[in-house]
Automatic annotation (TrEMBL):
It comes from Raoultibacter massiliensis. It comes from the Bacteria. This is Teichoic acid transporter. Keywords: Membrane, Transmembrane, Transmembrane helix. The chain crosses the membrane at residues 37-55.
Length: 259
């Protein structure tokens, strides 16, 4: 069977030179309507994806830090009371009586006491939670570790809470630790803690900055005829918990009463 071959068409000849017919190439090119619709659809989708990605980038770079700062501020402005325990008032109580006192006051307590210590009856480790934080929520947050939390979550669990420990294995050693977001400076936090614990009318002793960089004030106090030593120490909160976003003026305070 003979094969049909398309022969080229020539529009002009000039002796030995022949010119091919290029009229088809000079015709205006236009995409068929269905293909134009498909292309337009792809363009709309691409523009939508680009706009979404652009919004996400702007939101993460510009708006996310602002939202985080607002969340921190909101958690610090919550109506939660610190209700700091008075160590001089509790030092003569048994562990059971102290727990009962906290229960009667309506505190939500997170118990960190080690089993051996609890079994021996020589002390405890208790955290009083903010009034609007449940045990379940606090448990999840503490399991992560305070310094691993976001600034908003750290502010939520630290504002309005304190940790009290008692060690009766050798003498008496009561301590309470908490974050102070209100005093504004380390020196002010020390003085406010002394007043809150009712130690401002006791005998003052050494003061200054210890080897760890903590500002402190020490003294002695007479309780029911017994002399106890006390010390209030404070440092910047960032020195204890490296959580970005918490106020630079936040202070970590520790009060110790011992004999």
């Amino acid at each position: 069977m003979a094969m049909h071959v398309n022969k080229p068409e020539y529009v002009d000849t000039d002796e030995a030179v022949r010119y091919l017919d290029g009229s088809r190439l000079s015709r205006p090119f236009s995409m068929p309507a269905p293909q134009r619709l498909i292309a337009a659809g792809f363009l709309v989708v691409a523009l939508g994806i680009g706009a979404y990605l652009g919004f996400k980038v702007i939101d993460e770079v510009v708006n996310a830090p602002a939202r985080a700062a607002a969340s921190v501020e909101e958690n610090l402005n919550r109506d939660v009371a610190l209700d700091l325990p008075s160590l001089p008032a509790l030092v003569s109580y048994s562990d059971e009586d102290i727990r009962a006192t906290f229960s009667d006051a309506g505190y939500t307590i997170y118990d960190k006491t080690e089993e051996e210590i609890a079994a021996a009856g020589v002390g405890f480790d208790l955290i009083k939670l903010p009034s609007d934080v449940s045990l379940e929520e606090a448990g999840l947050l503490y399991l992560q570790g305070i310094q691993n939390l976001s600034a908003a979550d750290a502010a939520k669990v630290l504002n309005g809470s304190w940790e009290m420990t008692a060690d009766r294995s050798s003498g008496t050693d009561f301590r309470v630790k908490y974050a102070d977001f209100a005093s504004g400076s380390v020196d002010a936090a020390v003085q406010n803690a002394i007043i809150a614990e009712g130690l401002d009318s006791s005998t003052y002793g050494d003061s200054g900055v210890d080897g760890s960089g903590n500002t402190f004030q020490a003294g002695t106090v007479d309780i029911d005829g017994y002399t106890y030593n006390w010390q209030v120490s404070a440092c910047e909160l960032s020195g204890v918990y490296s959580v970005d976003g918490l106020p630079d003026t936040a202070v970590y305070v520790g009060v110790r009463l011992y004999s």
